[in-house]
Sequence to fold (369 residues):
Amino acid sequence: MRAILVGIKTKEKNEKELKNSLSELEGLVEAAEGKTLGKIYQKRDFPDPATFIGKGKVKQLKELAEGIEADTIVFDAELTPVQISNIEKITEVEVLDRTDLILQIFSRRAKTRQAKLQVELAMLEHELPRIYGQKGKALSRIGGGMKTKGAGEKLGEIKVRTIKDRIAKIKKELERIKKQRYQQRKWRNKDPHLLKVSLVGYTNVGKSTLLKRLTKRDTFISDQLFATLDTKTSFINFPDIGKKAVITDTVGFVKNMPKEIMDAFMATLEELEETDLILHVVDISDENWQEKVESVDKILRKINVHEKPQILVFNKIDKVIPSQEYLEDSDATLLSGDRESVIVSTKEGWNIDKLYDLLKKHALQKQTI
Fold:
């Protein structure tokens, strides 16, 4: 993928927010094994209903794509079927919106049966409205050249029915997996000596590295957005107090997570409903970390787990200071407000022992309840 990124600056989005959003979109392109060749944005009060950025701007986009040999245009927004069709017709290159791109990444990264089914469900639910939005002529091309309006409508109905049938089958299978996971969680709940911990955070904050540090478990690690999608669970033993913790990683979040993806991955987030403690991992080297903490907090409120005990784990401090000697015990408290917190470097292993002690404290508190 050789991509041009496109965004619009509206009254609701200032220039800094736009640039941050386009920067994140560039990270998504990289995660999809693509390369960003250029970024453009336009100031508009409202998106153009036909082409999102206006026909004149789309023609300029076509010239730019030809000049730098781009094969894909990625919009930092949700596009309608009509907008995608019109833009592709003018530019003669593939057009993706933000959700398309995220779904491509998810499709590449899903490994387990559950994750693959969740991704397929999200893709089908994203595709369905677009089929409804297509005209008879477009649908007739699916049938290998039939030109009549009636044939197109018939083929469209067949495709819609096929997709709906597949969606129903996937939901049934995911419900079966959900029941299995519920039984596993039910078994864990019977153990009073077991502290249930969940890792949450914006994508690419280092949750997988932290899981490996705490549990000594090998897991795939990459400096990319959505490097891992599958739920991972492992244990920490506290032999001196006769307790242990089960730690579950969840899929990383992004701002304005597409609805299809949130719906499809709700089964993964259900782990949070019965957790005793949430480790909210934050990339402290990111200048926009506060905004991303708010984005994650918003999702936690949406699934009604925001009042559970929480530790803010400020990670990647090695990118901010040259050595652990610069860390002071009071630093994390100043950053976190009323939540427990600790500053760590999962890469270098700094302060992992302090986080371990915090987990042990919560394990002991559960013992006394």
About this structure: The mean pLDDT is 82. The first strand starts at residue 2 and ends at 9. The beta strands are 2-9, 35-43, 72-75, 94-97, 194-201, 232-238, 243-249, 277-283, 310-315, 340-343. The domain at 2-105 is CATH 3.40.50.11060 (Rossmann fold).
